[in-house]
Design goal:
Recoverin, domain 1, 210 residues, elongated, mainly alpha, single chain
């Protein structure tokens, strides 16, 4: 219940941080650096080696959708990591008795102050999923499809390739010479927030078919 209460903001933090690479995940090194910067890892209540063990434990899975050998956090693993760190830092040190209260303290005292985050859900609801935008996209679909096929495009197409990579998106958008030019971070945020809705739909369908 406590995670559900904070889910929108935790997702937005995760979305902001995953734009660092082309995989849509929060890497081990990046996550370690982030937790040190936020004060979660302080070498007093939570040591680096404790963080590493929590990361590895979180990364182990039994469902077959994610390769555990890849030391990265996807979205649900990011949520699990928050719970593990809150317990190590506050419950196991007997500072706080309940896991829910430990999560609240970790978020309010360390993670949330000066946090940077995306807000893709509100963008989708207010600006994307509406009749006017749908009609505009529908009328321009032939032109949009040519983005994949145009000669000289940095986007590579073949039968087994199902989506544009982040690297290709950056090359394409920078090649448009927009004013002012969007940063790689902005492109990364838009890329993963757009991809996330599709990935969630696919994963949900797979789970229902099991």
């Amino acid at each position: 219940m406590k995670l559900w209460e904070h889910f929108p903001r935790l997702q937005n933090i995760w979305l902001y941080e995953i734009r660092r690479d082309d995989q849509g995940v929060f890497g081990w090194i990046d996550c370690t650096t982030y937790m040190k910067m936020k004060g979660v890892i302080d070498e007093e209540t939570l040591h680096t080696d404790q963080f590493d063990r929590a990361f590895i434990s979180t990364n182990v899975n039994y469902h077959g959708f994610i390769n555990s050998a890849e030391r990265n956090l996807n979205r649900y693993e990011w949520l699990e990591m928050i719970v593990r760190l809150a317990r190590i830092k506050y419950v196991e040190t007997a500072m706080i008795k309940s896991t829910a209260m430990a999560i609240e303290k970790l978020l309010s005292d360390e993670l949330y102050p000066s946090v940077l985050e995306s807000d893709g859900w509100n963008f989708r609801q207010r600006n994307c999923y509406n009749v006017k935008v749908n009609e505009l996209l529908r009328r321009n679909m032939p032109v949009l499809e040519q983005i994949y096929k145009a000669k000289g495009s940095p986007i590579i197409t073949h039968a087994k390739k199902k989506h544009i990579s982040l690297a290709e998106a950056k090359l394409y958008i920078h090649g448009m010479h927009l004013k002012p030019p969007p940063s790689d971070y902005v492109i990364g945020a838009a890329f993963y927030e757009s991809l996330l809705s599709i990935v969630d739909t696919i994963r949900t369908k797979r789970m229902l078919e099991m």
